[in-house]
Amino acid sequence: MNKKIKVLCFTDFAVGRDVEMMLPIRYFAERFLNCEFHHALNIDIHQIYRIKPDIILQANTIGSNLYFQISKIAHKQNIPLFALISEGNFRTDGSFDYWGFNRDKKFYQDFVCCWSERTAEFLRKEVPEVKDKIVVTGGVGFDRYTIYEFMKKEEFLRKYSGTQFKKVIGYAGWAFGKLDHKRGRDELLMWAKGDESKLIWIEDQRKKVRDILEQAIIKNPSTLFILKQHPQENAPERTEPVKNEMSELAHYNNVVYLCEEESIHDLISVSDIWTCFESTTALESWLMDKQTIFINPEVEFNRDPLYKGSTIVQDYNSFQKLIDEFYSTGKIEGSYSTEKDLTRKKLIEDIIGFGDGMNHIRAANYFQNTINQSLITNHQSRYNFHFWHWLVYVLIRIAGPFYNRAVYSKLWKFKKHLWVFENYKMEKLHKLYEKYIPFLGRFYKENNIDERFNNRSLSNDSLSL
Q1: Count of alpha carbons within 13 angstroms of residue 153, beta-carbon side
Q2: Distance between CA 187 and CA 200 in Å, rounded?
Q3: Is 260 exposed, middle or buried (0-12, 13-18, 19+ CB in 10 A)?
Q4: Rounded mean pLDDT of the chain?
Q5: Chain-centre distance of CA 428, in angstroms?
Q6: How far, CA to CA in Å, does 317 sit from each of 4, 219, 322, 334?
Q7: For residues 285 and 149, what is the distance between their CA atoms, to the nearest angstrom?
């Protein structure tokens, strides 16, 4: 039997967006590519030296300084690297910093994976020296909406509210909470192209959205509102509670305010209607056949085009009319026009490339190419010991067994790294993977993936048909 290929997979947490991108690739690689997987947080860089992987896999190389460091280390130590992209729905008007934390402005991975042809074509023009590296895989993390089954409404209601509610409306938070800490404000200023007056506008929008939500919550006491905090509001260095458009509404009896407790796909699944100020979760809702409402007090601002596939309200009265319409007729009529249907299909193509559940296979084909290239060249990796990485590894494992959130949140240094102690064992990831395996197996059987792989008809060209 051929020696298994050791894959070291780095993610930022044990659950969440990046993990959802990695797990279906793991399934394909274990099933067809003779791989064995090892998982680690991206702060746990010493794992490179411990495990000595044949290839490193990660969700992106630009989304955090840690991801960038790992990509550079892999390059220096001659370890093959395969990376996806987490924020693939980026603007192609020049406002998106596609280098992110990559200070070297070099792509160290073999392939630069894009969600759509729109973004790939933009990058080929922007960075022509690596145009041959730029490929389209589709948004891998979105495959889950086609493959998996998610939480049922009844299960959620039992868990959070008993059985007194039958109607559920979900809301995905915008990053308003970035306003009250330095790094967040800097990121918002980047979005606003340096215009500080936009920060005043953002605060005004926060209050207006809050007020619309609050009126809806008060006027619909028999409806449960799920308010989901935006994940980027929780910067590692932040210890104080986030103040956003939802945080002041958490005290209402018909509100469940969630930060990281539940996956976004489960929350969309249990909701009758999905709402937001602006969010990619609208597209995820369409993949689950949910109707979406954008709460936009002002409709003219620099935003992504997702609003074109949704119904827009500017005030509480308009919002309430749509709520009443849905619960009396079962649908929002304005969402069902031929024009809206075509718009949503076009947006899905422009944003995530494909909505067929096969994006992880498209990506895995390039992952296989990276593996094959390293085998053909018989490259020799170097695994250099680094004292600081070792020290971080040791400190995590000394402090981890004694972790108490209430205590550690008061300790200098530790309070900024609570996420490490809560995730470093990767137990949630392994549990999630076990949950997903049956769904992936069923999907592969229904789509004859094994047969197509064995007869070599599972190429990206055939998947694009």
Answers
A1: 16
A2: 15
A3: middle
A4: 91
A5: 16
A6: 61, 11, 9, 16
A7: 14
Residue-level length of the chain: 465
For residue 368, count CB atoms less than 10 angstroms from its CB and return exposed for 0-12, middle for 13-18, buried for 19 or more.
Answer: middle
Place of tokens 């495990």: 51
> What whole-number distance in Å separates Cα of residue 364 and Cα of residue 215?
47
236 confidence band (pLDDT: 50, 70, 90): low
Q: Identify the architecture of domain 151-350 in CATH.
A: 3-Layer(aba) Sandwich (3.40)
**Alpha-carbon gap, residue 253 to 453, rounded angstroms:** 52
Q: Which helix (H) or strand (E) holds 311?
A: strand 311-313
Instruction: Parse the chain into domains and list their residue ranges.
Output: 5-139+354-385+426-463, 151-350
CATH number of 5-139+354-385+426-463: 3.40.50.2300
In the three-class reduction of DSSP (H, G, I as helix; E, B as strand; rest coil), residue 265 is classed as helix
User: Cβ(297)–Cβ(201) under 8 Å?
Assistant: no
Whole-angstrom Cα distance, residue 417 to residue 181?
Answer: 17
pLDDT digits (tens, 9 = 90+) for 329-362: 999 988 888 888 899 999 998 899 998 999 999 9
Q: Between these two residues, 461 and 175, which has the higher pLDDT value?
A: 175
Task: Note the helical H segments in 316-465.
Answer: 316-329, 338-352, 359-377, 387-399, 405-408, 418-423, 427-446, 449-454, 460-463
Residue located via tokens 């990121």: 187
Phi, psi of 339 (to 5 degrees): -65, -45
Burial of residue 357 (CB within 10 Å: 0-12, 13-18, 19+) is: buried
427 C-beta neighbours (distance < 10 Å), count:
11
Angle of helix 359-377 relative to helix 17-32, nearest 10 degrees?
Answer: 60
* Cα 76 to Cα 39, 127, 381, 384, 408, distances in angstroms: 21, 22, 9, 10, 35
151-350 shares the fold of 5-139+354-385+426-463 = yes
Tens of pLDDT along 405-463? 888 888 877 878 888 999 999 999 999 999 999 999 999 999 999 999 999 888 877 78
